[in-house]
Amino acid sequence: MSDRLEIRKTFKLVINGAFPRSESGRSYEVQSAQGGFWANAAQASRKDLRDAVVAARAAQGKWWSATAYNRGQILYRWAEMAEERRDELAEHVRASEGVSRDAAQATVSAAIDRIVWYAGWTDKITQVLGGANPVAGPFFNFSLPTPSGVVVVFAPQDDSLLGFVECVLAPLAVGNTVVAVTSTTRPTPAMVLAEMTETSDFPAGVVNVLSGFVDELAPHAATHGDVDGLDLSGVDEGADELARLAAGTIKRVYRPRPLEGDPLRRLRSFVETSTVWHTIGQ
Amino acid sequence: MDSNLPSTLGSFSYDPAPESAAIARLQSSYGLFINGAFTAPENHAQFATVNPATGHVLATVAQASDADVDRAVAAARHAYETQWSKTTGAERAKYLFRIARLIQERSRELAVVETLDNGKPIRESRDIDVPLAAAHFFYYAGWADKLEHAGFGPAPQPLGVAGQIIPWNFPLLMAAWKLAPALAAGNTCVLKPAETTPLSALILAEILQQAELPAGVVNIITGDGSTGSALVQHPDVNKIAFTGSTDVGRLIQERVASSHKRLTLELGGKGANIVFDDAPIDEVVEGIIDGIFFNQGHVCCAGSRLLVQESVAEEVTRRLLRRVDQLRVGDPMDKNTDVGAINSAAQLARIEELVEWGEREGATRYDANCTLPSEGFWFKPTVFTNVDQSHRIARDEIFGPVLSVLTFRTPEEAVAKANNSVYGLACGVWSEKGSRTLWVAQRLRAGVIWANTYNKFDPASPFGGVRESGFGREGGRHGLEAYLNV
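YS: structure for the whole thing
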């Protein structure tokens, strides 16, 4: 079989539950860590990003109004799908990151376990971050964590699968919809995972995944008026400038810190606290 | 009673019931409060702070220069490193309890100073601003030795030096909102009061001295926007907390984007007050009045967009206009006054400009039937009907006693109109039907939702916005997050 001409796959984008190529008609070649052709990936354009934001906005109400139990089930379903295709994921991690098969398998295990961890948060976060407030008056007053809305994520460049999972699952678990841009040079582990959203019962538009170039997409995401949050984990140079651009619409911006004081910071980063006062009386 | 009958309430006259301005015991000029002591006023350029109800100068205060900001930050840093970070939570708590008590003890003086400097009715400064300021210190005092139980990990740490910039609408209360959680969490502070309302913060500085708070833990520097800007850009500040306009908030977020400073912003709003047809109309009318005319409408969370269900719109509007005519507008020092003075000439000009737009774009204007004092800055309570969502008076924050009335038919439409704003600070919902109220509350993009009430505040209740109304919360357990390294 060694002389069989292989079938080369082009990884497409995930936008609104469909798998389009970039509207720009562009793709780029992805190399393995050792060098050499690994796959073709669609090169998302600013228009693709805009389309994805439109889809994410439209889906946000549906995702948030689903029960927390249901959202947890869907995220867990994603983990089930990933477990079934774990060898495929591991092969992509191995090729992308240049690690041993065992290390790649360990990364996949950690990523899947992390999805499960976040799946469990959907119906806990309200109690952990919210609560009743004892105000001095005849009011029932309570605070709930509510999603910021649409979050655009630039996933880490090196940590192609586990980093992607952290960045995407945290905003999803608290009710945001997500437009995620994968690692530019190592997009395929995340794209394989993204393909599985098709069979995990996600409403269309909840998870949108783009491969492409940060320089091209990020300024547009930072200034987009219908994007509420921006995760700059995958941006090294230029993150300050993007954070500055994001100020134009008072976006919530997540940037990694050397020492994280609270493991829940990712979950807190894209939630708003909504406080309701209701009168008490006869 | 036939609600078409003219009200007879206007025929009752009230005797004047003035509070005494002498209680304020104001000095003629003030220095800066740095490292536990007031600097000599003559060492700084001075600017006047006026009583907006008369236009007369109350006192002059120091214009803090860049060098002054630097000294204040250095004092805060030194106090943080050498003292405050080594003070136990239990000891910090006791300082805050002391401050809370002293605010209570000097409450009458503080209320008078606040009303003189701000123009708000003495009834509000006496019953709301000052008691809430004391309550805020009291609330956060109790957190200082319980931070490990606040849900931010087992040993949350303070950030260091916090730079805090506050607005002129609730001068003392905003100072309390900023200082109390910051100090409880173990930070030291440099506070900049608003240019037009510096005085109550300077009285608070005296209170900090009385409480024997260690020198440098809180520094209070007066000045204009350049002072705030210097504080924002100071390299040795770890945290900026700002309350004010969205435009300035945007600039601050831009400026700290390339630093490691933490930031919380409490910005503008265009609150929707939604009235369903089953709500008790008398209570609704009072709620609408409180929502927009409280503090002359100088409230970021003011219910400045009234959304009334069509079936009761006529009735609600008629009763509302009748009620507006009953508002007692005038001398803020009179205990019977409902609506006081506009805080400054600049704010008055902004209100006048936007109201002019309201007329130009075709809305129908109604001015309260009242007489305004001849000197000072004043604006009649104003209600616009026939307002479209595209009108500037339905989109821009006016920050004055101006209400825009719009209508809706269905709950879906009410939610869509309420959310049709870049802001998302507060909303009101009026209905007797709890399930509908909660349905609406779930869908509103707002940080605070008042159901069958409006403009209620409490130190235990988180306050803050979504979208372009800012981020971060003040009040409650949530308010600690802004001052912890988490």
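YS: worth flagging: Chain A has one domain: 12-279.
IM: good catch. Also The radius of gyration of chain A is 20 Å.
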